[in-house]
Design a protein that fits this description.
Strand content: 15-25%
Distance between the termini: 23 Å
Shape: globular
Number of helices: 14
Bound molecules: pyridoxal-5'-phosphate
Largest sheet: 7 strands, mixed
Structural class: alpha/beta
Length: about 325
């Protein structure tokens, strides 16, 4: 199957599995795992942060990030279509007693500054306490501009809010714009990074921030069940991805652009966006069911649940892109 549902479907390479098998390990809840400690130190340095903390998932890394900033009854300002609001089971509210204040994302993924400003509440006992602004980069594959990030985080800071970035695909943004991870993390108080997406690790995310924030996060991580023991096996995979897979993301971006270009030529297909490793398309409603079945029958999996999305990743090669275009072309020439 050519699986374009998500970049989470990537599998560890043989070299990555060898690195995992060879990793020296210890009990990380006791702080004893040398591979985890080395990975966290390397990542913190790379992100220009004081400290980093390994997590089993990006959902947990985001949750703990939000809980490290917000107490019960505080609120975070977040995009309506952001992962931290929409796709994390309402965890911030359920587990953190943190009220989300969602605002509509603009088409480019940004939260308009005037909407952020209007959403920040006065210090009044009627209101939840506005504590945090949360952004996402990339969002639906789109890279937030550096100017926007500076303006939004400055606005938050001026109004006394902390800032968190869901950087599940921040490495895609770094590669696409030829910007260092450090530069992309610098405007934020905390950043969550994923290694199990396009970077190809089987498990693993991390939170970066100040030492004080990470100390608090370590306690919260234990509380939500994320304290792991011989986690060096996971850290070794993440470190291997950092060392060997980051630059490869540019191939995913090139292939996604080629896929979008090929699909755009087909009658009945409207490409609504292509950015970094993602292509979003729209078809007449009547095609959704039969097209989905056709694709599956011809060995192609795409996600059509929330939007029609094709995600390119390191387990997809040029021939796969050609095949997807050919299968789509065959469908639209017969229907
Ligand atoms: C995948 C993802 C996460 C974290 O997801 P997990 O599956 O919990 O690792 C967070 N934010 C975004 C934008 C994501 O795509």
């Amino acid at each position: 199957m050519i699986d374009l549902r998500s970049d989470t479907v990537t599998r560890p390479t043989t070299a990555m599995k060898e690195a995992m098998m060879a990793a020296p390990v210890g009990d990380d809840v006791w702080g004893d795992d040398p591979t985890v400690n080395a990975f966290q130190a390397t990542l913190a340095e790379l992100a220009g942060a004081e400290a980093a903390l390994l997590f089993p998932s990006g959902t947990q890394s985001n949750l703990v990030g939000l809980m490290a900033h917000c107490e019960r009854g505080d609120e975070y300002i977040v995009g309506q279509s952001a992962h931290t609001y929409r796709y994390e089971g309402g965890g911030a509210a359920v587990l953190g007693s943190i009220q989300p204040q969602p605002i509509e994302n603009a088409a480019d993924g940004t939260l308009p500054l005037e909407k952020i400003s209007a959403a920040i509440k006065a210090d009044d006992f009627h209101f939840a306490r506005s504590k945090l602004l949360t952004l996402e980069n990339t969002i639906a594959g789109k890279v937030l501009s550096a100017d926007y990030i500076i303006a939004a985080t400055n606005l938050a800071r001026e109004r006394g809010l902390a800032t968190h970035l869901d950087g599940a695909r921040l490495f895609n943004a770094a590669v696409a714009t030829n910007t260092s991870l450090k530069q992309l993390c610098e405007p934020f108080d905390s950043v969550s990074l994923c290694f199990s997406k396009g970077l190809g690790a089987p498990i693993g995310s991390a939170l970066v921030g100040s030492q004080a924030l990470i100390d608090k996060a370590r306690r919260l991580r234990k509380m939500v069940g994320g304290g792991m023991r011989q986690a060096g096996i996971i850290a070794a995979a993440c470190q291997h991805a950092l060392d060997h897979h980051v630059a490869d993301l540019s191939h995913d971006h090139r292939r996604a652009a080629r896929l979008a270009e090929g699909l755009a030529k087909l009658p009945g297909v409207e490409i609504t966006s292509q950015a970094t490793n993602m292509v979003f398309a729209r078809f007449p409603d009547a095609h959704i069911q039969p097209l989905s079945a056709w694709l599956k029958e011809h060995g192609v999996l795409i996600e059509m649940l929330y939007a029609t999305r094709f995600v390119v990743h390191r387990d997809i090669n040029d021939a796969d892109i050609d095949k997807v275009i050919a299968v789509m072309k065959a469908y639209f020439s017969q229907h």
